Amino acid sequence: MTYQIHLGDYSFSSWSLRGWLLLHRWELPYNVTFVDFSDGPVAGQMSEIAPARTVPTLVTPEGTVIWDSLAQAEELASRHPEAGIWPTDPAARATARALAAEMHAGFGALRSACPMNLRAAYADYTPTEAVLADLARIEQIWSFAKSRFGSSGDWLCGAYSAADAFFAPVAMRIAGYGLPVSTQAQAYVEAHLSDPAFRRWRAMGLSRGGELPQYARDYTRKPWPGPVPLAAKVTENSAAENTACPYSADPVTHFLSLDGRIFGFCNAFCRDKTVADPAAWPAFMALVDQG
């Protein structure tokens, strides 16, 4: 029972991030079809699974096409009630649904002015009044949810829920553009930056595809504000400690070095996503900890 999810460029497709989190965060079985934004219009690349025209699009094991991320959240929650995609408490669940729905439909000024770009962070962006109005509303609803249901943890309505998956790209915009928010809101942004699932997504984005000019902005760049990755690098040295890829168990053919140690992987993508953020990958860190 494996889902097929069609995703756009990891560094830029904020909607795709939401759809992927709905599967990955709750460990549901899935395979990915990558839709490269550099290969032409998305709708044309999706023609074989009509009526889908956008990413993310989810195809269920029996072949049903779900081309809307909020519908994906609801359908996955219905199919996997044990997963906890929505909170179990009725009031928290209703609030989480309202949060996700408002994110799904709103905040156009923020989206337009600050497109998600996980390859860049900016030091001198000045938000417009419309963007500040969106931020004020975001802070209002985050604060409401946190005070009612999330005061004891990192997330909006208690445990991580679909509402947090939907707001992950908003958190990345706040982080990437250095947008002014309260201490409480900044703590929520930092929880997303540190979330291992998000870190894996960003690492894959740094390893697949390239810069897309339409998402770039002409502001001074600064280092990415998330956790600083371990200092791994690509190497031609093949004297790896492991003979099987930590992800696929296939024979190793590509290599990285970390702290003077060599580790192998079955392909360039497995290696490069690990180089981008080694600590985000539990299977790799298990290898490191064996040494």
UniProtKB/TrEMBL annotation:
InterPro entries: Glutathione-S-Trfase_C_sf, Glutathione_S-Trfase_N, Thioredoxin-like_sf. One of its GO terms (molecular function) is glutathione transferase activity. SUPFAM superfamilies: GST C-terminal domain-like (SSF47616), Thioredoxin-like (SSF52833). Residues 3-84 form the GST N-terminal domain. Coiled coil: none annotated. GO terms for biological process: glutathione metabolic process; L-phenylalanine catabolic process. It holds the Pfam family GST_N_2. This is GST N-terminal domain-containing protein.
